[in-house]
Amino acid sequence: MSKRVVVTGLGLVTPLGVGVKHSWSNLIAGKSGLISTTTLPGYKEDGWDQITSKVIGKVPSGPLSEGKWNPNDHFAEAESRRLAEFTQYSLAASQESMTDAKWFPSSEEEQNYTGISVGSGIGSIQDTYENSVKLDSIGYKKTQPLFIPKMLSNMAAGNISIRYKLRGPNHSVSTACATGIHSIGDSYNFIKNNYAKVMVAGGTEASIHPLGLAAFSRARSVTTKFNDEPEKASRPFDKDRDGFVLAEGCGIVVLEELEHALSRGLTEDDIYAEVIGYGLSGDANHITAPPEDGGGAYRAMEMCLQFAGVKPEQIDYINAHATSTVIGDRSENRAISNLFKNNKNLAISSNKSSLGHLLGAAGAVESIFTILSIKHDIVSPTLNLDNPGGRDDDPKHLFEKFDYVVNKSQQKQVRFALCNSFGFGGTNGTLCFSKYKSQAQ
Ligand SMILES: *[C@@H]1O[C@H](CO)[C@@H](O)[C@H](O)[C@H]1NC(C)=O
Ligand SMILES: *[C@@H]1O[C@H](CO)[C@@H](O)[C@H](O)[C@H]1NC(C)=O
Ligand SMILES: *[C@@H]1O[C@H](CO)[C@@H](O)[C@H](O)[C@H]1NC(C)=O
Ligand SMILES: *[C@@H]1O[C@H](CO)[C@@H](O)[C@H](O)[C@H]1NC(C)=O
Ligand SMILES: *[C@@H]1O[C@H](CO)[C@@H](O)[C@H](O)[C@H]1NC(C)=O
Ligand SMILES: *[C@@H]1O[C@H](CO)[C@@H](O)[C@H](O)[C@H]1NC(C)=O
């Protein structure tokens, strides 16, 4: 019989803080995690000054007691030198998530059935840059022996599995901005199909580097219109949106077979939500641009609903991918409008208005916010949505069918929710979460 899968642990490192409590309370307080690169210490020396886009979502530096990031709070100095930053974030978020779930496998049997699935969109762009520069300017002897293992995007999974002796599936997805959704979705299927009983799953990214921002800037993917007002720069579904905000962080969940969670004494209170569906699709359209009608997004959401056994009318909330790009938001909105045309109760919002776009970590972090909105019956606001849609080719009425939760969060019963992520390369993923009830639904 196919297994039920529940979420029992959460861990976060985001531009709003280190730890679920800090990220959550800052976002409830309506804070923005976005800053200007002009405030960075190396603004001129590191070349940020040449780049046209100036807004980023950076994990704040400082002591852990204030919900900020200092590697010394998590690692001995020699150890942190061996770990790329995206891997560091993932180890910290895994520790939080596994502590929350009260699950550290100790017997050999438990280790064998606990797996890992953590990916990154880019891996370590810092190490790639530094090693390239040193090879070019100094030569062979300056290439670090650890460069390749440090940089590989599956090394977060490798390091987590070694630290916690997770000997089940050792998996890592790298599907650009859909990485987090696919990591959690694949883990859901592993448990459903009995490859593992517990999976530590998520996405991690630390690509705030002048090379990354310069490249996204040259491709005109990132915003430039709001350089002087960072907190206004990310405006999903708004007519003045002009690109995403490059951000970093990590989200890790513990997924668990329901019977396993109950057998070790967890109760309904300890279970955040149930994962009930997963859909994925390809656009077969263009390397970075979605099709106008949002066909790929439509098929991912449709497949997800079919597996979940839920009708479009039953969905209460969609945590949209909506990165604040002109065509991405439009095509996602069209896909939603088509699939949910008969849903009068649907709320849609995008966390990217306060966080920016965490690339490979986005889907995992936003899944955690979706899970929390199910647990607490609160849907969060979309900030900066002052004038929905609004372009000639983007008529306003297409953005008025649903409740976009403008400006303020709302109390709302959330029984079923979707979380979307779409990535460069034409890849789309959707997860469906529901409130956990002890009786089978
Ligand atoms: C765990 O897996 C290893 C390797 O397959 C096997 O030798 C061992 O017996 C397993 N342990 C348990 C308790 O199942
Ligand atoms: C993590 O991976 C690095 C290679 O990138 C390795 O040198 C280090 O020993 C690993 N640490 C742990 C705790 O697994
Ligand atoms: C998981 O895979 C990584 C990368 O291939 C490897 O370094 C690590 O040792 C593996 N972990 C385990 C527990 O086998
Ligand atoms: C993200 O969305 C969740 C779910 O709606 C919400 O509770 C949370 O406040 C949002 N966070 C941010 C940073 O907007
Ligand atoms: C949201 O807030 C902005 C800025 O304060 C304001 O201009 C706008 O009218 C508000 N929108 C709604 C629907 O309340
Ligand atoms: C599906 O994936 C593609 C990858 O290019 C992405 O750009 C697009 O946004 C997704 N589809 C839609 C309609 O959003």
Automatic annotation (TrEMBL):
Reaction catalysis annotation: a fatty acyl-[ACP] + malonyl-[ACP] + H(+) = a 3-oxoacyl-[ACP] + holo-[ACP] + CO2
Any one of the GO CC terms: mitochondrion
SUPFAM superfamilies documented for this protein: Thiolase-like
Top-level taxonomic group: Eukaryota
Ketosynthase family 3 (KS3) domain ranges (all copies): 2-435
Keywords: Acyltransferase, Fatty acid biosynthesis, Fatty acid metabolism, Lipid biosynthesis, Lipid metabolism, Transferase
Active-site residue numbers: 177 (for beta-ketoacyl synthase activity)
Pfam families assigned to the protein according to its UniProt record, in alphabetical order: ketoacyl-synt, Ketoacyl-synt_C
A Gene Ontology BP annotation from the UniProt entry: fatty acid biosynthetic process
Single annotated GO MF: 3-oxoacyl-[acyl-carrier-protein] synthase activity
NCBIfam families reported for this sequence: fabF, PRK07314.1
Family: Belongs to the thiolase-like superfamily. Beta-ketoacyl-ACP synthases family.
Protein name: 3-oxoacyl-[acyl-carrier-protein] synthase
Gene coding for it: Piso0_000688
